[in-house]
Design a protein that fits this description.
about 575 residues; alpha+beta; Glutaredoxin; 8-stranded mixed beta sheet; 15 helices; about 30% helix; disordered N terminus
């Protein structure tokens, strides 16, 4: 009887993806009245340039994993650490031969340290980092005073201030933790082919030993601003590249400004930010120089001379110097099927404010928990859409904010120059003196440290545009309530006295641990109320006493959390 052997009947093999697409049109041919048509994969070339290299039709892919991560920078490494900690099989590849040797990104914000604490590795970072507890703004050689961000943050987070640690050390800590978790990074390897379908990811990885097929359930592009994964998936990278040249130097023996704090200095045409990196005047110097005439680049001697002439800053030597142009871009989506983007692959912006790497690390934390929920805890795959819904708006707001700030400090427009040169020197000294005394001063630290990020927790909240003081935000820190977050699981908190029957009812209806803490007056947590906390430490819902059980069950259902056999249905 005439028949056609359809490609979808072949056993799964990473070589089959392109072949299936190549011969899919055969399924549209009418059956021949006198003979059958039979096709085999061996009749076709594989994506590796020859016949299937897996030993025949029934051979499995050379390597299989849950999640393939492209890029072993801070974002990719933290993603892998979180996934491995949650029991997810992960493969990390990077074209570099090993962890970065340059200092590169170095500001670590409080929210990032809270995440590292959840993963059990914050002590390694704190033991090596330099803490900047103050910010000193100024104009050219003049300082306007000091903002004590460490003191402002002491009531906000267990990690006040901004911690400074070279990216090379950050990557080494994360790589060592991956090794301890049994994960080996494929250094010197690149993804050169990538196909994805509803059933998974098929990739080609090239390294010193040749080409290898990899099959994964999901792929995450954490491979930087020039991301191969983003380009291969066809996701637009929307935005602009600024005309200004940024220079960055790791300077030693710095003089002319306080070396133990973050300094922010404006100028008529120049801009300067410094970060303390260690004793002996070891400072990260970051600034802009306006190019003149046909000039296309800035040399280290030119930057050094400009620093001395405009800001009165001098140094003995540098261990690293580089220049680059600033881009402000955000990917059109952070998810395309089974492919995700994180870190610089999804968003790039000005380094002002030490926000970039931290945003990428928080992308990784958010995505790792969602992938683990689907791969290990039977959450519906549709819940992965929450990653783009939550993290892309954060990137858009950050890019817009840093773009405006960068434009304000570098614009050559007459009004902008007047504001920088005449108005700010009058206003900022007064603002710096008054700010620490204001009741809302800690909120400044919340914004800078990224603990005030908001996610919409329901469609109703999104439609109405109503943002609560707690729901959708990272759980406020009371001084004692963060240790339980290390479990990386859903839980319920209550602050202050509560009726025992209400606590029992909540526990029985949602089958989650209920933690009770003393009430404190320095947060927006209402005494006697229950709070539903996500594994990432964000508040998913809040309710008083008897209303909590039903409301929390609805919130868990909306988040895709599977019901447990022991749960009761609220009556």
């Amino acid at each position: 009887m005439p028949r056609i052997l359809r490609p979808d009947s072949w056993p799964r093999c990473s070589c089959s993806v392109r072949i299936r697409r190549s011969v899919a049109w055969f399924s549209l041919l009418p059956a021949h009245p006198h003979r059958s048509i039979s096709l085999s994969r061996s009749d076709f070339l594989s994506p590796f340039g020859g016949a299937c290299q897996h030993g025949g039709v029934n051979a499995p892919p050379a390597r299989s994993t849950d999640v393939l991560v492209a890029g072993a920078g801070p974002t990719g490494l933290l993603l892998a650490v979180a996934l491995a900690s949650l029991g997810v099989d992960v493969l990390v590849v990077d074209r570099k031969l090993g962890p970065t040797r340059e200092s590169r990104a170095l500001g670590i914000q409080a929210r990032t340290l809270e995440i590292l604490d959840q993963l059990g590795i914050v002590d390694e970072f704190l033991s090596l980092a330099t803490t900047a507890s103050a910010v000193s703004p100024g104009f050219e050689r003049r300082s306007f005073g000091t903002v004590p961000i460490g003191r402002l943050g002491a009531v906000v987070s267990p990690f006040p201030g901004i911690h400074v640690l070279e990216q090379s050390r950050t990557e080494r800590i994360l790589t060592d933790r991956l090794t301890a978790l049994g994960v080996t990074v494929l250094w010197g390897h690149s993804i050169t082919g990538l196909d994805h379908s509803r059933s998974g990811i098929d990739a080609v990885v090239e390294g010193p030993g040749g080409r290898e097929a990899v099959h994964a359930a999901y792929c995450v592009g954490a491979d930087g601003a020039s991301s191969f994964v983003r380009k291969r998936t066809g996701i637009p990278f929307e935005g602009i590249t600024n005309e200004h040249i940024f220079y960055v130097a790791d300077a030693h023996g710095v003089s002319g400004l306080p070396a133990d704090r973050i300094n922010v200095r404006l100028g008529t045409e120049d801009f300067l930010v410094t970060f303390p990196m260690g004793p002996g005047g070891h400072v990260r110097v970051l600034g802009t120089i306006r190019l003149t005439g046909s000039q296309e680049a800035v040399t280290e001697p030119e930057a050094r001379a400009r620093l001395a002439a405009v800001f009165g800053v001098e140094y003995d030597s540098t261990s690293w110097f580089s220049t680059y142009r600033i881009s402000h871009r955000v990917a059109a989506t952070f998810r395309e099927g089974r492919v995700f983007l994180a870190g610089d692959a999804g968003h790039v912006h000005s380094p002002v404010g030490a926000q970039g790497m931290n945003t990428g690390l928080q992308d990784a934390h958010n995505l790792a928990l969602k992938l683990a929920n689907v791969l290990r805890h039977d959450y519906p795959p549709a819940t992965l859409n929450q990653y783009d819904a939550e993290r892309r708006p954060v990137a858009l707001r950050l890019t817009s904010t840093t773009d405006r700030a960068f434009g304000a400090v570098t614009s050559s427009a007459r009004r902008a120059v007047f504001i920088r040169r005449r108005l700010l020197p009058l206003v900022l000294p007064v603002a710096v003196r008054l700010l620490p005394r204001l009741p809302g001063a800690p909120r400044l630290f919340e914004y800078v440290s990224q603990v005030r990020i908001h996610y919409w927790m329901s469609e109703e909240a999104r439609r109405t545009g109503r943002r609560g003081s707690v729901v959708g935000r990272r759980l406020p820190w009371t001084g004692t309530n963060f240790d339980v977050l290390r479990s990386l699981e859903w839980q319920v908190h209550v602050y202050g006295p509560v009726a025992a029957r209400d606590a029992i009812r909540v526990r029985s209806f949602v089958s989650l641990p209920v933690h009770q803490f003393e009430s404190t007056g320095n947060t927006r947590l209402v005494p006697g109320w229950f709070y539903l906390i996500r594994p990432d430490g964000f508040v998913a819902a809040e309710a008083a006493g008897g209303a909590a059980a039903r409301k929390f069950r609805r919130a868990l259902d909306a988040a895709g959390v599977p019901r447990r056999p022991t749960e009761r249905v609220p009556g």
